[in-house]
């Protein structure tokens, strides 16, 4: 009797785009598709269902794979964090005959970056969150509470603090910083106090504030003391997120792999030391091994072995920026 080969679909569903792959259990990628955003909260159940089913249909048709040959659909989705949301997505796929694993998109970033192995990831862009997995495959998170209640160490946090220190200088209760002039030039204002109505009227958006982080990195390179303080504090906060994960998961090893993901880490050399200083463990900073969509695929495997990882290394290299 010939054993039918089975396949896994991995989906990275984000707020700006959705990437999916269809691969066999050995890690060979058969098909890949990219479509528009699929944030579950933004799209709503009906639109999300149509997008997801169309995506599966496209992958199976283009690869000439029968839907009965799909053993698992493994998804990491923005806007899906609570159990009731996961159950709704499971229900959509169960109704059309698919077994599924559903997690938040941060979980597949963790799985992809570490190749399914134990360790910690810190994700810092506009917001911030840390996740980790131990050798028992237990997963924990810290942070991700949004810009009002959290997001310490994020782009928003760094940009907001630049504004705070500039206003302190203006008041005469803070030291001089080149950030003040840099912010005024960037926002095209003549006086730093003009930033106040921009913030409270929300004409200056969260993204706009986050974009000010690049001025802090620039000022740091110019030896500005306030920029140094802001980045040191941001790094410390990101380190504390990671340390909270390490304590929760009770890592046995004192040497832990850590991967840094997100726009803030484009200039990570300014943040590594304060992150490391906040964690009383030996931290091995490693580059993310795979993109999140590969993390989704790995999440769908019963077992991850080195041969699968080597095949995926080859497949990702072959596809280049296509993933």
From TrEMBL:
<dbReference type="InterPro" id="IPR052519">
    <property type="entry name" value="Euk-type_GlcNAc_Kinase"/>
</dbReference>
<dbReference type="Pfam" id="PF01869">
    <property type="entry name" value="BcrAD_BadFG"/>
</dbReference>
<feature type="domain" description="ATPase BadF/BadG/BcrA/BcrD type">
    <location>
        <begin position="9"/>
        <end position="300"/>
    </location>
</feature>
<dbReference type="InterPro" id="IPR002731">
    <property type="entry name" value="ATPase_BadF"/>
</dbReference>
<protein>
    <recommendedName>
        <fullName>ATPase BadF/BadG/BcrA/BcrD type domain-containing protein</fullName>
    </recommendedName>
</protein>
<dbReference type="InterPro" id="IPR043129">
    <property type="entry name" value="ATPase_NBD"/>
</dbReference>
